[in-house]
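User: Sequence recovery, please. Input:
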């Protein structure tokens, strides 16, 4: 009798195994097995661990101590403050505005807040704050430069070229080299006042200052109670005309109290009372002689 050969093993998967493998290869299932399941297990373990108050408090204390150990390492400590670009008085003002107890951790310093506090000071135009190696808090300051003294009802103040308040002063003698301006709104026209100052240089020490009138025009104040009334438009040009007249005819050396240039086509002179009396007396003499 012929012996039967055993059936060969079929290597193909069963229908159930095939469907299971295809299901495991779908993107959603793969993501779930790689991310969702581990995350869920971790969350469950953490929830069980933190459900106990003692373990939760111990973990919080451990985190606090670990953070403190890192922040208080010597390489993260700030021990000094350096201020560059500021005078002695401004540097002292900055130190008072930013009171820090050194040494302190660099993690406890809000550099942007410190910069805002420093730039909020009137004499400071701009500032940058950074931490330098060696535990040094570096503050670089661009200080406003006063260019005029502004007289108001509240006293005297110094302003920069943009009309920004730099500080208050007790007396005019504190800045005798700066021109004096006065009047409401004068701080909004500092640049124009400086132009007038440049044109008025030939007047020398006779110049006392500039007064803003009606928030629209300037008066030039000289010694001997003389004034030059300038128009609202092209005041520099009007002042230059007066300077030329003075250089040619000694206009401001005469008994004139006011030179009114508000009407450019018809300048007007106002004489002093003594000069006016003399003028009328001369006219009367001339009239009697005719």
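Assistant: Recovered sequence (290 residues):
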């Amino acid at each position: 009798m012929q012996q039967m050969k055993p059936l060969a093993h079929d290597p193909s998967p069963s229908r159930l195994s095939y469907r299971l493998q295809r299901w495991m290869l779908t993107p959603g299932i793969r993501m779930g097995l790689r991310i969702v399941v581990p995350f869920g297990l971790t969350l469950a373990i953490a929830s069980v661990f933190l459900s106990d108050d003692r373990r939760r408090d111990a973990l919080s204390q451990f985190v606090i101590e670990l953070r403190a150990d890192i922040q208080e390492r010597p390489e993260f400590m700030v021990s000094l403050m350096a201020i560059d670009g500021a005078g002695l008085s401004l540097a002292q003002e900055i130190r008072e505005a930013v009171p820090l107890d050194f040494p302190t951790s660099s993690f406890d310093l809000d550099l942007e807040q410190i910069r805002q506090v420093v730039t909020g000071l009137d004499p400071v135009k701009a500032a940058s704050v950074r931490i330098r190696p060696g535990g040094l808090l570096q503050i670089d300051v661009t200080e406003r430069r006063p260019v005029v003294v502004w007289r108001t009802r509240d006293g005297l103040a110094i302003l920069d070229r943009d009309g920004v308040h730099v500080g208050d002063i007790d007396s005019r003698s504190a800045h005798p080299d700066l021109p004096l301006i006065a009047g409401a709104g004068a701080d909004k026209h500092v640049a124009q006042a400086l132009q007038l100052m440049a044109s008025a240089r030939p007047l020398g020490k006779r110049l006392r200052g500039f007064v803003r009138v009606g928030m629209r025009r300037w008066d030039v104040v000289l010694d001997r109670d003389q004034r030059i009334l300038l128009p609202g438009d092209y005041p520099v040009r009007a002042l230059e005309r007066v300077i030329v007249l003075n250089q040619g005819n000694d206009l401001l050396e005469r008994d004139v109290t006011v030179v009114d240039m508000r009407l450019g086509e018809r300048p007007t002179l106002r004489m002093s009372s003594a000069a006016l009396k003399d003028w009328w007396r001369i006219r009367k003499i001339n009239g009697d002689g005719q």
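The first strand starts at residue 77 and ends at 78.
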